[in-house]
């Protein structure tokens, strides 16, 4: 069997640190032998200052294109540069330094106030600490919401809470899950949980929600993916693979994977999902094959490939993962990718084509192209569109899916550069006065009524319908650093730092520019706090990127897709 080697991180306390006196040129980066890095112990035998210095070089789009293979090697360098539980103590180059009198202390204080304890141990962070509003489910620990908090604690050298969270949610996975008279699959992870204190028995118990209490009664597809991704982040950060190697963790991963790798009537390698199954947990027209789920699916598969033991049970899953990754990467890079050339091709599509030679494989009607897309698409740039299914393309730009595509290497190096080019070209629309739009553009008027069902919370430029979410700051910053564009992260962080603390860490902002605090936004929203912290810590010490970002898998490179259409003149 040919498969990606299983990566196992182990802590090594010995190593060398070499300093670099000046910033490297692009040519010097090209000459650096990244293969030597892979032969060294993962812990400290890395030229850490070089990692920071090389990252600070502002690569122009043209330079990035010309040396796209170098971009992929830089991604590998990041993955191996992270030293388990080790703080480099090296400064980010002066050109990237943010205000030393930042809001970091206040952010950490707010994050620690959000900690949730179960029988004396921290097990997560509460969704929001806004006492001015009715709790609803904001008093619970959400799996997806906890991810940036977990990353912040890992970067801070405090992994215990992450370990506790992983084990407690794994335990909840084994519970019987029932909605009305229907039993959910064994592998489904909870959307959230809360700690219930029984005053009579003086005992604490956990109460989980698998979607039966959610507004749309939809099970969270993303929770299981985030759990695997976080388990890999914990293993990478601590250098301790003993947690992932536990039989219960191995079984938990296999149960999650069995749900999404099972065979059915699907003709595509993507996952078919209901509306409201991910961060956008209300009706927003993301049913079908949403980019957020496909990108997380891809990343979770790659993380599981590193974590699964090649024993009798794990070997079968490893083989299935490798096959799925090849099919999924080809499908996404071919059919979800949009740039100026591809847009022009769709505009000229013929319809009603039959047979395997069809160019318009999904029978998309060119007249269905929205007017806004023609002005939105820059000359140099591109992105993964929101959804692709028979006779339907959702051309909306979604932040989370595109950033995860970069971090997981679902996007090719050229596509990653093109995504960042688009963000820079459309900065006012996508970032504006508060980073970052969860999606663009907003649904309005008749389209809003039909697609959202007249949802009063998802009105135009609000909440999930074009709202600006500070938590997206860490996704944008990680993607910017990975593509060698830290200036984008710095610029976004400076905008966020000017408002977040004064506004008391809102959940989201409204308006075309994100100028107004959301009309129903909770204050002291934990993942707004944690998202800022993770973004700031990665920019201060770029080696932290290795916790969450993956290097390019050479076996998944598609020769036919080596060059992005974005650079076709």
Provide a compact summary of the structure.
InterPro entries: 6-hairpin_glycosidase_sf, 6hp_glycosidase-like_sf, Glyco_hydro_100. This protein has 569 residues and is an alpha+beta fold. The protein is built from 22 helices and 13 strands.
What would your notes on this structure say?
The chain starts with about 25 loop residues before the first helix and ends in a 29-residue tail after the last helix. It is globular and about 70 Å long. It has a single domain, classed as Glycosyltransferase (Alpha/alpha barrel), CATH 1.50.10. Helix content is about 40%, strand content about 10%. It is an alpha+beta fold and about 575 residues long. α8 (about 160-175) runs antiparallel to α9 and α12 runs parallel beside α16. The chain contains 22 helices and 13 strands. About 50% of the residues are buried. Strands 8-9-10-11 form a four-stranded antiparallel β-sheet. Strands 3-6-7 form a three-stranded antiparallel β-sheet. A two-stranded antiparallel ribbon has the order 1-2.
Instruction: Specify the overall morphology.
Output: globular
Give the spatial strand order of the biggest sheet: 8-9-10-11
User: What class would the helix/strand composition place it in?
Assistant: alpha+beta
Distinct helical segment count: 22
Mean pLDDT: 84
In the predicted model, the low-confidence regions spanning at least 5 consecutive residues are 1-95, 559-569
Helix amount, in percent? 40-55%
Q: State the total count of DSSP E strands.
A: 13
Radius of gyration: 22 Å
Q: What portion of the residues fall into strands of 2 or more residues? A: 5-15%
Q: Describe the sheet with the most strands.
A: 4 strands, antiparallel
**What separation lies between the terminal Cα atoms?**
41 Å
**What number of structural domains do the residues give?**
1
CATH architecture type: Alpha/alpha barrel
The oligomerization state is single chain
Name of the CATH first level: Mainly Alpha
CATH topology: Glycosyltransferase
């Amino acid at each position: 069997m040919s498969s990606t080697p299983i990566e196992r991180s182990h802590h090594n306390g010995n190593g060398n640190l070499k300093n670099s006196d000046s910033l490297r040129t692009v040519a010097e980066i090209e000459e650096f032998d990244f293969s030597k890095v892979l032969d060294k112990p993962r812990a400290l035998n890395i030229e850490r200052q070089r990692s920071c210095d090389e990252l600070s070089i502002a690569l122009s789009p043209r330079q990035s294109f010309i040396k796209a293979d170098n971009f992929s090697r830089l991604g590998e360098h990041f993955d191996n540069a992270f030293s388990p539980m080790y703080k480099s103590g090296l400064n980010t180059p002066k050109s990237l330094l943010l205000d030393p009198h930042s809001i970091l202390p206040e952010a950490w204080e707010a994050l620690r106030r959000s900690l949730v304890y179960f029988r004396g141990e921290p097990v997560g962070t509460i969704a929001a600490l806004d006492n001015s509003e009715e709790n609803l489910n904001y008093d619970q620990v959400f799996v997806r919401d906890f991810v940036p908090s977990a990353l912040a604690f890992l970067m801070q050298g405090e992994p215990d809470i992450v370990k506790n969270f992983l084990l407690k949610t794994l335990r909840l996975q084994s519970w019987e899950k029932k909605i009305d008279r229907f039993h959910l699959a064994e592998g489904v992870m909870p959307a959230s949980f809360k700690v219930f204190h029984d005053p009579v028995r003086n005992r604490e118990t956990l109460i989980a929600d698998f979607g039966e209490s959610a507004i749309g009664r939809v099970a969270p597809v993303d929770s299981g993916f985030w759990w695997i991704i976080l388990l890999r982040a914990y293993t990478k950060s601590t250098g301790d693979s003993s947690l992932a190697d536990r039989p219960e963790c191995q079984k938990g991963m296999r149960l999650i994977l069995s749900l999404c790798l099972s065979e059915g009537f699907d003709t595509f390698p993507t996952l078919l999902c209901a509306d409201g199954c991910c961060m956008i947990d209300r009706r927003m027209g993301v049913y079908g094959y949403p980019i957020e789920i496909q990108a997380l699916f891809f990343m979770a598969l790659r993380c599981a490939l590193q974590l699964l033991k090649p024993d009798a049970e794990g070997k079968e899953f490893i083989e299935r993962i490798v096959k799925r990754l090849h099919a999924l990467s080809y499908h996404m890079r071919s059919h979800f990718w949009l740039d100026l050339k591809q847009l022009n091709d769709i505009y000229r599509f013929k319809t009603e084509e039959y047979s395997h030679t069809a160019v318009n494989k999904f029978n998309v009607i060119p007249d269905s192209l929205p007017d806004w897309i023609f002005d939105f698409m820059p000359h140099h740039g591109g992105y993964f569109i929101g959804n692709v299914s028979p006779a339907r393309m959702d051309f909306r730009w979604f932040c989370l899916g595109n950033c995860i595509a970069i971090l997981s290497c679902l996007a090719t190096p050229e596509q990653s550069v093109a995504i960042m080019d688009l963000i820079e070209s459309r900065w006012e629309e996508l970032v504006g006065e508060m980073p970052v739009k969860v999606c663009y553009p907003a649904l309005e008027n008749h389209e809003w009524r039909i697609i959202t069902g007249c949802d009063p919370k998802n009105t135009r430029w609000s909440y999930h319908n074009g709202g600006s979410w500070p938590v997206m700051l860490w996704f944008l910053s990680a993607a910017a650093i990975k593509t060698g564009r830290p200036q984008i992260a710095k610029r976004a962080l400076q905008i966020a730092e000017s408002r977040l603390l004064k506004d008391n860490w809102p959940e989201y902002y409204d308006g075309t520019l994100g100028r107004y605090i959301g009309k129903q936004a909770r204050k002291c929203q934990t993942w707004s706090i944690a998202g800022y912290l993770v973004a700031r810590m990665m920019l201060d010490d770029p080696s932290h990127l290795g916790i969450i970002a993956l290097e390019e898998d050479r076996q998944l490179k598609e020769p036919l897709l080596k060059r992005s259409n974005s650079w076709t003149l």
